[in-house]
Automatic annotation (TrEMBL):
GO terms for biological process: DNA replication. Keywords: DNA-binding. This is Single-stranded DNA-binding protein. Residues 103-147 are annotated as: Disordered. It comes from Streptococcus gallolyticus. It comes from the Bacteria. Homotetramer.
Length: 147
């Protein structure tokens, strides 16, 4: 199974191009925060190359810019090519097959809501509500963990 889910921010405006057959292809880099902190107490980020095709590419290009937060579902792809110096270059990237816009291009440029919000996809999980919302936080120490 090759399935990837990421939430992060675009590091720069994504680049939209058209293939010879007029198919949209978009490339960019997504900064994804790690779930843990380093020795200095800071969160580090991984910078993951993404590519999107057709309508997904058009949507990202239209509504997202540098700093936009997006969620993507896709797959890892590896490819290689020979550069101008004759060296073999290997690329690993995530092909975005579905995108959730968590804020818009204007949100980042103006620092406020732009009026465009893509409604989250309604599914059984979202309609059931948050069953953990009414519970109290748990106090767990490191010695309670089995690892």
């Amino acid at each position: 199974m090759n399935n990837v889910n990421l939430i992060g921010r675009l590091t720069k405006a994504p680049e939209l191009k058209q293939t010879a057959s007029n198919t949209s292809v978009l490339t960019g880099t997504l900064a994804v925060n790690r779930t843990f902190k380093n020795q200095n107490g800071e969160r580090e980020a991984d910078f993951i190359n993404i590519v999107a095709w057709r309508q997904t590419a058009d949507i990202i290009a239209q509504y997202c810019g540098k700093g936009s937060q997006i969620g993507i579902t896709g797959r890892i792809q590896t490819r290689n090519y020979e550069n101008q110096q004759g060296q073999r270059v290997y690329v690993t990237e995530v092909v975005a097959e579905h995108v959730d816009l968590l804020d818009s291009k204007n949100d980042n440029q103006q620092g406020k809501s732009s009026g465009y919000n893509q409604q989250p996809q309604q599914n059984g999980y979202m309609q059931q509500g948050n069953s953990f919302g009414n519970s109290n936080p748990m106090d767990i120490s490191d010695s309670d963990l089995p690892f």
